Hints:
335 residues; alpha/beta; 2 domains; 8-stranded mixed β-sheet; 4-stranded antiparallel β-sheet
Amino acid sequence: MGKTMLEVDHLKTKYITRFGENVFAVDGVSLKIEEGKSLGIAGESGCGKSTLALSLMGYYFAPLHYQSGTIKVDGVDITEMKPDEIRKKVLGNEIAYIPQAAMNALNPTQKIISFIEDVIRAHDPGASKKEIYDLARERFEILGLPESVLKKHAVELSGGMRQRTVIAISTILSPKVLIADEPSSALDVTSQKMVIKMLRNLMEKGFIKSMIFITHELPLLYNVTDEIMVMYAGQIVEHATAKEMVFDPLHPYSKGLMGSILVPEKGARDAKLTAIPGTPPNLKNPPKGCRFADRCRYAKPACMLHPIAESRLEDGRMYRCYLEEKELREVYQDE
Length: 335
């Protein structure tokens, strides 16, 4: 086993509405990621993926608030740090974040090198312009970005080039954990491929030690990550290897998620897409039992009554369901 870069234990974060209501978008999430490994997080829109990404950095601002749990980066619990300490010591250095629509994060009136100078000097005020330029040039060239990009404004770059530039800037300080939230969304297939290749290069060359890749596209995660967690209504409902999750999902929601998309494999021509009926629960007042029960065709009365604990198989695979593995496989086989 490698060194643990990020370890999260029963993390709970909430939104507080203007009416004072609590919305637990991240409810008891635990995960661990080791050096050299990548973890994918998948789920439908509104399940809490992006909130989890923000929460993992330990830097909160209204309406998002920390409730409980621990976030350890390289063994240090950042939930005990003050906001200014997290901003100066953790963000960028320890954890880097690529938000959704990152290609629009660059200031259109500022040259790329000026943006990089601001990022580096926020952590190292004494860095000279030459030192910063040399570091940026070397890093960009290694990642397949021409030096000329440094002297351009964001409006002079294509969408795919802007996205790759943001990724390069976000990882310029060689963080231990990179959190990428939908980094390939809104891009054409060719640009997506280049972004994925760039993220792999960052891992292979050691510029980032580990990565969390968030998306709603399970097949995409299969080509990028080692393990996948499926999130539903603020909770993790299954955690398995990428291969298991895509080709042998166990939880009924994971099964439905995979059934709603096509994976290029033998027999896919005759496969039929299936939709998951219903809508996710309101997290202002979540159900007492399984949060997926109202939409699950295998649900039993007991599923509605009590919180569903995590079940772990001998190989470490986790799923959150009232039914045992044998029961689930039997009902899937009978279909």
